[in-house]
Amino acid sequence: MAVGGNPKSALRAARQRFGLAIAVIGGNPMYFKTYADLYHRANEQLGHPRGPVSVHSPGLVAATDAEARERIFEDWKTQQRHTGAERGWPAPTNGQFNMELDHGSLYAGSPETVAKKIARTVKNLNLDRFVLKYSNGPAPHEHALESIRLYGEDVIPLVREILGRPA
């Protein structure tokens, strides 16, 4: 069951014996640890086995950090404006973009940068899965394909290596 910041949804997922998928589209992903922990405690209290927890976040993988930042910036701004209009958020800023890249839930950069950030999120939230939403708007097809290729060939193996998990 997908949740985006509602503790009742995390509890409902545990009661229904569903896995928990946390959609993190902005802000520090560690904020969502409370929902993952709540879900695990609820499963334990209900006598259910440990259910899987995943995070779903936007990003883009390119050969270099600079290239990824350049490719995703305009699409990120467009998506933030659209979502913000629906939710009453202020217009996105360059500072917000940099914060999301450096400390937030935008996973864009070189394979090494993205892998380190994903591994940190997986470890800190005790995740079973991480899903990268590789398109943050109308990215050119060749950029999407490159991002998918780099994610599968480079990022995932690096994350497994960082976390000490088998390939």
TrEMBL record:
GO MF, any single term: oxidoreductase activity, acting on paired donors, with incorporation or reduction of molecular oxygen
Family annotation (SUPFAM superfamilies): Bacterial luciferase-like
Single GO cellular component term: cytosol
Keywords: Monooxygenase, Oxidoreductase
Protein's UniProt name: Luciferase-like domain-containing protein
Species of provenance: Corynebacterium maris DSM 45190
